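Researcher: Quick sanity check before group meeting.
Model: Go ahead. Protein one:
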Amino acid sequence: MSASRTERLLNLLIALLNTKYGLRRSELREKVYHDTSGNDVSFGRMFERDKNELRQFGFDVETVTDLGWSEDDPATTRYRIGKESNRLPDVQLSPGEWTVLLLASQLWERAALGTAAENALRKLQASNGLADVELPVGVQPRIKPAGQAFDDLVAAMHAQHPVSFTYLAGTTGSEEKRTVEPWGLGSRFGQWYLAGYDRSRQALRHFRLSRLTSAVSVLDTEKYSPPKDFNIREDLDSLPELPLRTAVVDVRTGRLLGLRQRGLPADGKLKGQPDAGYERLQLHFRDAEVLAEELASYGPDAMAVAPDELVAAVRRRLHAAADFCAAPVPAFEFADAPRARAARKRTSEDQLKRMLQLVPFLVHNQGLHIQEVAGRFGITRKELEEDLQILICSGLPGGYPDDLLDIQWEDDHVYITQDLDLKRPVRFTVEEACALLTGLETLNGLPEIAEGGALESVTLKLMAAAGEEGLRAATLAAPEVGPAESAIVEVVRNAIGARAQLHLVYLSPQRDKVSEREVDPLRLYSLDSTWYFEAYCHSAQGLRNFRLDRVQELHPNGKQASTQLAPGEGFPAKLFTPNDDDTTVTVQLTRKGAGLADDYYAERTAELPDGGLAAEIRFGNTAWLPMFVAQHGGAVRILEPAELAESAQQWIEASLARYGG
């Protein structure tokens, strides 16, 4: 969609919205399209494409005919758009409901649903005004989607396109090509699952996203119809949990304290003995792939001995990492500007969607500073001014002053006085309804939120406003976000409220040691069911993030917090706090691993021909980067600095040598 087409579609929309009896094709051709080519066939194709485009944006283009005439006669057929049927109903929210809704929208840390949640909030703000509410301390949960595959599957599912991918079958241990009609995505047992109709098996099947060994290909030329009553949460509730099994692992003496705490000495029934300098442990596990990812990251410090399925999974990851490290380096060039947090490239379609949100937003929020408006929409001032320039040139076919959108921003404060019936936002898309309603359902796992009436009331209001699109939220089920370490959560929350200092005994797997610290806690937040607290660490003399499941001991030390630091700016809290002495590392990511650029806050990226990325990421501690490369098994490698790339390759080679090459 070119910029001129964006403007044309906007003018067509305004014309069809502001006609009571409809406009004939010949009138639209002359007054909106200004088409004098005389080629009726070419114009007819363009007009049909534009009508379909408007329908995709949520506007139903009605066809009106005179009594007794056929729709096939362009001379007697008129077109219009009803002013009510495509608009989001007014939703009035209390401050408490706004607080719950903000929490629900910010669950999606990034990816397509994060953008959809932001769009949905702007639509609600267009009829309610800006909500000035504060998020509660200690209740900032987040959901981490399962990489690029999650985004691709959500898009395919909502557009009802089949997908194909290579899958590591749990029963056979072999990689197989699957073609699936995606019915639902949900989290269960700490893993994301796709439920859908497997065309080769001709039956409903479940696929763990961690077992996908290729990127997801969307078959966008095909369509399917999912069952109307399918509910992914109910479907996944019927899945049995994987049985508890025992793994045997040889661990280097004195290393991997966290792994040792979970293990027991081996019972000696296996033949053979561990090599010198290693000890044999038994570990309980349910999913071989999950444990294999962890063991691969430990490199030569740990070796899987049994069962064979686990050994094969670790070897496969290490071989994939070694092959990727040895592959030729593609040509790429970083842009000079720092990388924005957008998950994908903006298009002209995004611009038109944004402008349809921008007009009602400005109508109900008059006089905002132009920089604040740009910030609300996540764009630059230049991009916003380009939007406004198109808007003020758009309007009814006559082109007279009263026929155009009237927007002023000369004094850097934006006002709109002529809205041409664009003052109400378009109804929610499926993605927007899913993002908010799934987020609200997820908050039921937090007692302090679920016990109030705001969560239930705002859910009912949004279900009513979303209509049919809201019913399709049943295709998505988020993970449980309630903390398992509820006692620790209570200690941290009380300390934050009382501005009290805490004594912390903490296990750091990257440094493989237990340390004691005095910390001033600032806020709590989560990533799926893993909870963290951000604190000022007096040992490190800076902000740090601590995982609650790695806390060995935590209690008030009787002192008041001695720092006046506030929590780190922005939401969500970053897991990695940048410092001046960080090392900038250039990595290459496959398409499957492209989401790591967002997970680790890449500062610059460059797209690669295969759909992957080159990314510049800052790391404070580079010693664990070989573990990082091995863990992701062929999805990431280090390009620069050269010594880090070499140490990662040597780490992987030493790991493979433990398995016989």
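Researcher: Fine. The other one?
Model: Protein two, sequence then structure:
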Amino acid sequence: MLFTAADIRRAMTGGALSLAGIAFFVGLAITALLVSGGASSITAAVTDPYILRVLRFTLLQALISTVLSILFALPVARALARQPRFPGRIWIIRLMAVPMGLPVLIGALGLIGIWGRQGVLNALLLKIGFAEPLSIYGLGGILLAHVFFNMPLACRLMLAGLERVPGEYWLMAGGLGMRPASVFRFIEWPVLRAVIPGIAGLIFMLCATSFTLVLMLGGGPAATTIEVAIYQALRFDFDPGRAVALSLLQIAATAVILGFLALLPGAGDDGVTSGKSVRRPDAQMIGVRLADVAMIFVSVLFLGLPLLSVVIAGLRADLAKLVMQPVFWRAAGTSLAIALSAAVLALVLSVALVRARHLLSLRGSEQRVSGVFFSSMGGASSLVLLVPPIVLATGWFMALREFGDATFFAPVLVVAINTLMSLPFVMRILEPAYRIHQHRTQRLSASLGIHGLSRLLRIDGPALMKPLFTALSFAMALSLGDLGAVALFGSDGFITLPWLVYSSMGSYRTNDADGFALILGLVCLLLTIAGTTGQVWRETRNG
């Protein structure tokens, strides 16, 4: 017997309690929204011209952002795939990962530093005679910011697909004398066609539920997404009815998007390569190489200049003075406490769900109840995709306002919401590692009679320490940089580092905002690097 009855009982109990806790937190928020608004809110959501305009803008900007991100990522990924060896390639690929681990607030500040009214680009345009500066606010700024954050994601996923093309294909292409157009048509496009729908769906979902970027760059009611409209309805207008209607509309919209994503085909891994590196025939042509260099250079400038702007602007601030302010230490202490609490709670929930799902997978799918339980625990970790953080915060705000000031419960709510935000990422890291570890050790451990606490201390703990640390660091970085969960409850008595940056900008203390942003970015970057140290050798091998 691979597991004792006590092991099975503990694992199933932990999984059931975790599932119940997640369902309670999300379910109560949704129930509060329905009870507060009822049928009138649903009717308002489909008849109010303002709400319909917000919905149209949300979907339109998500669609355009997705198309632009894919169109930009496609030639960059092809260029990196065609040129597998050149100085600095691995650092360019790592640069592609920085926006994904960077707090959205800081990325927006970097874009403003380059593309804003007082930014580098407008300064150059004014010098050559342009009288009207470019504006980063409105639809254009939102699209620019979404491409900045999502193009690197699309590029890395496309590049991974292109690098799986068997070497034998390139030998055959070289033997046939294929031109670049034929290489794209017969080799690259079939691979990209398989992965692009899934990538586009993921980016569309991210853009449709975007909050911080639209809050900073939206530029007014004409450029507002559903989540920002929810925030404005509660924070500025205090119109709970409209907030409820928008929240229900957001849930319906994300449910439709997730349902569509479920219908998209997964990317396959066709063919088997011998592992020998083969020089692509189209990479040798001088015209292609020049085009690749130009495309890679443009992408590096597009991603690197805003990041450099954040560093330069932050260094110009009086960092010594900023870190001596009591408000900084209060915000830093609050942020670290929330991040650590949310990350640890996410780890506890994920470990419980992963253990229970593993035991259920060993039983097989012949038991219908077990199959439903297995699927429910897998879906619970992704409920935050269906009910975004601002909607959860709105639901709990409506539920708690009957008991007085809802901001009194803000720290607990922000920790809980950040926990749910982290769960999909933590589960994605832990579940494969746990499954592989159990496959390697469970039979030997059972034959030696090692179970319970002894197995945890001697076998599971040491083997899973690295993925646990990776998950913890990623969850902490995600929580530290989050503005969405705290935006509804932020006040003078409840300040986090992202809220301190945002409030400094709102008070026109730009230098202070730049300094705080640099500190926050460095902390999040260090956490991300700490979590990926074990993966450097794999990136080096692939680079």
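Researcher: One line on it for the slide.
Model: Confidence is low (pLDDT under 50) at residues 267-275, 534-543.
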